[in-house]
Write a structure and sequence with these properties.
Elements: H1 3-15, H2 18-25, H3 30-53, E1 58-60, H4 69-86, E2 90-94, E3 103-107, E4 112-116, E5 122-126, E6 131-132, E7 136-139, E8 145-151, E9 156-160, H5 171-185, H6 187-203, E10 210-211, E11 222-223, H7 233-254, H8 265-292
Parallel strand pairs: 1-2, 6-9
Antiparallel strand pairs: 2-8, 3-4, 3-7, 4-5, 8-9, 10-11
């Protein structure tokens, strides 16, 4: 999910509170601002606090002049095995900023970690008795690839792309932010800010990523909801953005800033359906025209 979607989702959540709408009508946008800031806060905290709070247990630094996928596969398998045996979070970082990219594949059937690097072939290693929560395919790049191995129920291990600072994306963090906003601006601000923060956390879980939901009180990891394949995330992002925009628009035109005359629910639903359908009809035709050079 991109930041714009999270921002509008936070604003839509704030618009559902009568106190926020009434205050905005009187020229006080505080509750909307609190919700907007809290909706973007988790990623900001990750950038600012994450590098200082994360713990990396295994560092992989391949030789850029002689790439060899086998040691990379062995190190990844070692991290999975250690997480499985100790039932503790294991942080791993793969550094390839100046070298070639590595393609990484986790296979749940054979429990193998396969790593390839261009024309240098493929290296594979057994991943101990652990079963991954989801098959995973990754590709390293110019930015260090930070992974977390999190123990989940049974013998399973969840692998996420989240850096160690992802303890920020948790339920206790949402409650803490809500309490801080309540102390600063009142209970309505706490509900608006805490809810916007929680929506951000939940949106990050719809795919195959994961988090330690109760960190720092528990290190027990949980995989994502796996509702949406990563390839479908752009469509989900557009859908969530559009729904948030509709909720915000409906509350504005029927609440403190009621339009005269206000659109009916039927008109609003037609508006909600017409534009997306038109976009779905138009976008493929535009792409086809570009491919044909029209």
């Amino acid at each position: 999910m991109n930041s714009l979607t999270r921002l509008f989702l936070g604003l839509a959540w704030a618009s559902c509170w009568p106190a926020a709408m009434q205050a905005a009508r009187q020229g006080d946008p505080t509750l909307f601002l609190v919700a907007a800031v809290c909706a973007l806060l988790p990623d900001a905290l990750d950038r600012w606090v994450g590098p200082f709070s994360s713990r990396t247990d295994i560092h992989i630094v391949p030789d850029p002049t002689a790439p060899d996928p086998k040691p990379v596969a062995d190190a990844l398998a070692l991290a999975i095995a250690r997480c499985h045996d100790t039932r503790q979070r294991i942080g791993l970082c793969l550094y390839t900023p100046t070298g070639p990219a590595y393609n990484i594949r986790f296979d749940n059937i054979t429990r193998m970690v396969s790593v390839s690097c261009g024309a240098t072939g493929t290296g594979a290693a057994l991943a101990a008795p652990a079963t991954l929560d989801t098959p995973f395919r990754l590709k390293s790049g110019k930015v260090p690839l930070e992974l977390e191995m999190l123990p989940v129920n049974g013998n399973r291990v969840a692998i996420t792309l989240m850096p160690g600072g992802r303890w920020i994306h948790t339920l206790p963090a949402s409650i803490a932010i809500g309490l801080l906003a309540s102390l600063a601006y009142g209970i309505d601000a706490g509900l608006a800010g805490g809810g916007a923060y929680l929506f951000h956390v939940l949106l990050d879980q719809v795919g195959y990523g994961g988090s330690c939901w109760l960190a720092p009180f528990s290190r027990q990891g949980a995989c994502g909801f796996q509702w949406v394949h990563p390839k479908r995330l752009p469509f989900l992002n557009l859908a969530v953005f559009w729904v948030a925009l509709l909720v915000l628009g409906w509350n504005l035109t029927h609440g403190a800033f009621a339009a005269e005359p206000a659109p009916s629910l039927v008109q609003w639903l037609l508006f909600a359906g017409a534009l997306p359908l038109a976009g779905l009809w138009l976008i493929p035709r535009i792409r086809r025209a570009k491919r044909l050079g029209c």
